[in-house]
Design goal:
79 residues
Length: 79
């Protein structure tokens, strides 16, 4: 029996701020990959430096993670 693919989110990039995370999300969505920023609201209110995180996460469904990372590897965003 085959296990159905999971929709569990996977972080594919951690960005230094919301602006960079939005750019990454836009690039992924332009490539046909649904992406979201779970930290978007709180990072808009507080800079990531004051949060107890390593930055602003961009996440995709687990089954899209490899393709998303491959797409981001070829982009010219400083990471």
């Amino acid at each position: 029996m085959t296990t159905p693919p999971t929709r569990e989110p996977v972080t594919v990039r951690t960005c230094r701020d919301v602006t960079e995370a939005e750019l990454v999300r836009s690039m992924l969505e332009a490539g046909g990959i649904q992406a979201f920023i779970p930290d978007e609201n709180v990072a808009t209110l507080y800079p990531p430096q004051v949060l107890d995180t390593d930055g602003v996460r961009v996440q995709v469904a687990a089954e899209d993670a490899d393709l998303a990372r491959e797409l981001l590897e070829h982009e010219d965003i400083e990471h």
